[in-house]
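My main concern about presentation is that the manuscript never shows what a single data entry looks like. For the editor and my fellow referees, an illustration may be useful. For illustration, here is how one protein appears when written out as sequence plus structure tokens:

***
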Amino acid sequence: MIDYDFPLWRPPSEGDNLIIQATLGCRYNQCSFCSMYKVKTYRARPLDEVFADIDRAAREWPDARRVFLADGDAYCLPADTLAAICDRLAARFPDLQRVAAYATPFDILGKSPDEIALLKSKRLGLVYLGIETGWDVLLKRIAKGSTAQMEAALAKTRDTGLKVSATVILGLGGRRDWQDHMDATADLVNRAPPVYLSTLQLGLAGEVAPRFLERYGDGFEWQDDAGMLVELRRLVERLDPPAPVIFRSNHASNALALAGTLPRDRAKLLASLDAAISGNAGVRPRWVRGF
């Protein structure tokens, strides 16, 4: 089918969808916790290569309905380039419903409302954004920008109708700073809610762990599963967004899979968490978890 440039990453919800590599690597590639694209040098692929992959995929899977544009932050491409890719997808896949991509706050803030509207009209209406934390101190430790940039990007997506699926990393503040991490994250989401919100648990590949620990500073202590569940409970308890947020903890790294809509399902989610914290409900065995 397509000769992908590996490693290839995608969000869990894109697992059954067609993946087209519009870029290779990640243009930003500075997050201290992330090892996903360290073996790649970022480049935007020439349109003729992208179009050839689309044409090849259409011959093999002509009824594909959803497409994810890889790699790390394909939404960084100029709007006219993304529009051309979307046009090619629409021409080759008659049942095309949605195109999605990873994005950084800088990618979203760098697009005008008219450009976002143009891309939405061509079905690129969902981006995946790593919030990671709403605590400015921790965002700077992990080299992920600032809370002000995150909030501005989320507000812009609300104003323009661009759907965001955002992620938060449990354990990112360690045992010392978890409360600040969770409280500030809940505050950010309550001020600027994404459409979708999910969690994953911190995991560090060997090659990035030294930089993460160096930037964190004194005394990072890992949270165990019990600590992660307490973190998650505090987050869910404090989330009270003004618009419904579809919440999931279905990433393969999580000890406990949850699903609901906040704030409507808060009581149900807290009951599931309390059962797991008290030992009355099991968590996922470590051998079935991963990234």
About this structure: The mean pLDDT is 93. The domain at 12-279 is CATH 3.20.20.70 (TIM Barrel). The CA atoms of residues 129 and 250 lie 16 Å apart. The longest strand covers residues 124-132.
